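Bumping my old thread because nobody answered last time. Still need a sequence for this structure:
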């Protein structure tokens, strides 16, 4: 097996959807789940801080030097599909793009994945954060998830061992180092139903700033209501710090309109968060993940 590619002092600006941040000490880019496991077992990721990067669609990377390593899963894109009865069983590697998975679902007449419409990133990232829309996510489709711990232990988690909750890791605070593959059981559907459902989930995102440089929703929805609504009522739309702006279309999105640093983005997010707490007494919880010190 070929060795995992490792790049020293690797810039991360081009590997996250905000297009901000500095560089890391090293970046490992395994091209398969087996290569990822081999890399971890080599001990290369056993010391110091190490972050796992999927599609980069929900992360904020610190400016300057991130004194840590990064494992990028974007090259882990193998997938296999086998029909059995009214379902398809699929082994999908963590770096497989969710956009491509939805396209395959349409092609193969597979239902249950329509909620992925408009969601960026990778399967591994979507599973780690339980990404979804309209109360629907991967959870009912997952039969098993294969992971590797930082000390190289490979483990397969059965569906009953995974505890799904809103925008949270199914392992809680005890999440494994990285997901290598997921085993999904996906039901067949009709093309008409699939297209109808995709249109429904797409309609839920009509107010979002599609095409802008964002990282998706910055904050999770609290019990008190949608985060975007609370931010909007506090007058956050249009606020800016440096090159970072709160979207005029949806207040839970921060856009990099050119040259925004990660410090700009974070300062703006904290400014909005403080407004919501001052007006409504609600402490918003971040949905994005942080690479480095903020």
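Sorry it took so long. Here it is:
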């Amino acid at each position: 097996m070929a060795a995992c590619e490792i790049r020293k002092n690797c810039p991360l600006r081009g590997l996250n959807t905000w297009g901000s941040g500095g560089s890391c000490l090293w970046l490992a880019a395994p091209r398969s789940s087996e290569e990822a496991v081999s890399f971890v077992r080599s001990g290369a990721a056993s010391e110091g801080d190490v972050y796992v990067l999927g599609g980069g669609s929900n992360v904020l990377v610190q400016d300057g030097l991130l004194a840590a390593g990064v494992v990028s899963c974007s090259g882990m894109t193998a997938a296999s599909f086998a029909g059995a009865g009214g379902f398809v069983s699929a082994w999908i590697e963590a770096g497989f793009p969710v956009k491509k998975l939805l396209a395959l679902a349409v092609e193969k007449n597979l239902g249950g994945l329509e909620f992925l419409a408009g969601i960026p990133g990778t399967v591994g990232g979507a599973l780690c954060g339980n990404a979804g829309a309209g109360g629907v996510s991967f959870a009912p489709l997952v039969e098993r998830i294969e992971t590797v711990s930082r000390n190289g232990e490979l483990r397969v988690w059965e569906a009953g061992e995974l505890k799904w909750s809103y925008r949270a890791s199914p392992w809680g605070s005890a999440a494994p180092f990285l997901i290598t593959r997921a085993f999904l059981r996906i039901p067949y559907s009709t093309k008409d139903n699939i297209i109808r459902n995709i249109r429904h989930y797409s309609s839920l995102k009509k107010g979002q700033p599609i095409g802008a440089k964002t990282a998706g929703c910055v904050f999770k929805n609290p019990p008190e209501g949608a985060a975007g609504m609370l931010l909007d009522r506090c007058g956050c739309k249009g606020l800016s710090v440096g090159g970072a702006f709160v979207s005029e279309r949806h207040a839970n999105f921060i856009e990099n309109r050119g040259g925004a640093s990660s410090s700009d983005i974070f300062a703006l997010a904290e400014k909005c968060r403080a407004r919501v707490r001052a007006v409504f007494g609600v402490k918003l919880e971040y949905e994005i993940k942080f690479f480095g010190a903020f």
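The longest helix spans residues 262-280. Let me know if any region looks off to you.
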